[in-house]
Design a protein that fits this description.
Structural class: alpha+beta
GO molecular function, one term: DNA-binding transcription factor activity
Helix content: 40-55%
InterPro entries: GAF-like_dom_sf (IPR029016), HTH_MetabolicPath_Reg (IPR050707), Tscrpt_reg_IclR_C (IPR014757), Tscrpt_reg_IclR_N (IPR005471), WH-like_DNA-bd_sf (IPR036388), WH_DNA-bd_sf (IPR036390)
CATH superfamily of the largest domain: GAF domain
Shape: elongated
Distance between the termini: 42 Å
Strand order of the largest sheet: 5-4-3-8-7-6
Strand content: 15-25%
Organism: Streptomyces himalayensis subsp. aureolus
CATH class of the largest domain: Alpha Beta
Function: May be an activator protein for the gylABX operon.
Number of helices: 10
Radius of gyration: 20 Å
GO biological process, one term: negative regulation of DNA-templated transcription
Length: about 260
């Protein structure tokens, strides 16, 4: 049997190094950390960049994990499995909250709604399964961005569409919002996409703790939020409890 391929081992080491921190690394830092010649490290990084496993910041020249690798990290989870594991919890969340419930996953720079439970009343409603939502203007999407389920850089580079005056339409505003989401563990949208509507979402994690989707409630802003536009704490708690329950069913450890 042939032995290990050194170049693949080195490429794997570079990927692990980039994944181990929260900042981009320069060529010299990568080479020094792994004991590689700069020429060797540069050649491997160029190859990884060619297949979108690594991205290079044009301004600083530093490297980070690429979008293709982030996609592979969650591709083990079939969308149908996410939906099937979530159905009972989504039904329960709709019953307890009195609001519509949606579950979303990232798809080509947007949020794909894979499951939708109607608000439990007699009003006329439209099924959203298969709909695509903007990442930066929806609670589901902001959760996916905040926890690395889909990359932020391509979205910012393409331009953040402003749906109204409440939309997070600048990179600075979006970055501040994503930082806060990671701190509190949930996201909200308050009239950021559709005037008069609001939503709350929390991350769904799979095995290993990776965020693979999001679950949330949505409805009229006067039902989701208080008079100051802040989401009601009891709704936040219900959404987070549902997200934890789905995550446990998917094999995620407690966090």
């Amino acid at each position: 049997m042939p032995g290990a391929v050194q170049s693949i081992e080195r490429a794997a080491a570079i990927l692990r190094l980039l994944a181990s921190g929260h900042r981009r690394l320069g060529l010299g830092e990568v080479a020094a950390s792994l004991g590689l010649a700069k020429g060797t490290a540069h050649g491997i990084l160029r190859t990884l960049q060619h297949v979108d496993f690594v991205e290079q910041d044009q301004a600083t020249g530093k490297y980070q994990l690429g979008a293709a690798l982030l996609h592979l990290g969650t591709s083990y989870l079939d969308v149908n499995e996410l939906r099937s594991r979530s159905i009972n919890w989504a039904d329960a969340l709709a019953a307890r909250s009195g609001e519509a419930v949606r579950i979303g996953t990232p798809l080509e720079g947007q949020v794909l709604v894979v499951h939708h439970v109607f608000r439990p009343d007699d009003t006329l409603q439209t099924l959203d399964v298969g709909s695509l939502l903007p990442l930066h203007a929806s609670a589901l999407g902001k959760v996916l961005l905040a926890y690395g389920a889909t990359p932020v850089a391509p979205l910012v580079e393409a331009g953040l569409e402003a749906y109204n005056r409440h939309t997070l339409a600048t990179p600075e505003d979006l970055d501040r919002a994503l930082t806060e989401i990671r701190e509190v563990g949930w996201a909200a949208e308050v009239q950021e996409m559709i005037t008069g509507e609001a939503g709350i979402a929390a991350p769904i994690r799979g095995q290993g703790g990776l965020v693979v989707g999001a679950i949330g409630v949505s409805g009229a802003v006067e039902r989701i939020c208080d008079t100051r536009g802040r989401p009601h704490p009891h709704l936040v708690a219900l959404v987070r409890d549902a997200a934890r329950a789905v995550s446990r069913d998917l094999g995620a450890a407690r966090w």
